[in-house]
Amino acid sequence: MDFASLIPQFAISFGLLLIAMTVHEFSHGLVAYRLGDPTASNSGRLTLNPLAHIDPFWTVLLPLMLFLSTGGNLVFGAAKPVPINYYALKNPKRDMIWIGLAGPLANFILAFLIAQIIKFSPFGELLTYLLYNLLAINVVLAVFNLIPIPPLDGSRVLMGLLPLGLSRQYAALERYGFIILFAFIWLGIFNRILWPMVNLIIGMMV
Fold first, then answer.
1. How far is CA 86 from the centre of its chain?
2. Annotated catalytic, 25?
3. Is the pLDDT of residue 67 over 90?
4. Residues 149-177: pLDDT tens digits?
5. Which of 161, 181, 147, 21 is nearest to 97 (CA)?
6. How far does Cα 127 stand from its chain's mean position?
7. Is 73 helix (H, G, I), strand (E, B) or coil?
């Protein structure tokens, strides 16, 4: 495999992923701020500057390893989570639902807007390709984060809906969350659920 030839492709994919992740994390912080928690703002995370959201492993090394190991077929990663002070929220249990939903919802909205731009603006082939890939990355990021496995956003929503006792027990799974996620990926469960859902949503948008 000629890794050198993959570098420009990775740079483009990584740049698009960084845009989607920045919008995602900014939205978490913004909603938390609106609901009474200034932690993200005080820590410099309430910004659309991608540099504020980069985690060395999850944002850089993981996407690079996935990209190279799949021959350029997959780039995926995660930003540094926006800090949330549960006890600063006006209604912590309810507000965590909205904070959890904020990131995926922002990605869906951005994907929808991109779809409209693609439909109604006569762009050249290269720009259309970049926009379509940004749309797809936003949808993948949104759908993936809605999976109710800690520490993904879907788990925050589920914790807010469960009774307090069950919510605390469920939150305790977070220490095993990434093990569970990687096990699901290795078993191919996400391939049977995640990608059909992503393709369905993209098909509805474009």
1. 21
2. yes
3. no
4. 988 999 999 999 999 889 889 888 888 88
5. 161
6. 23
7. coil
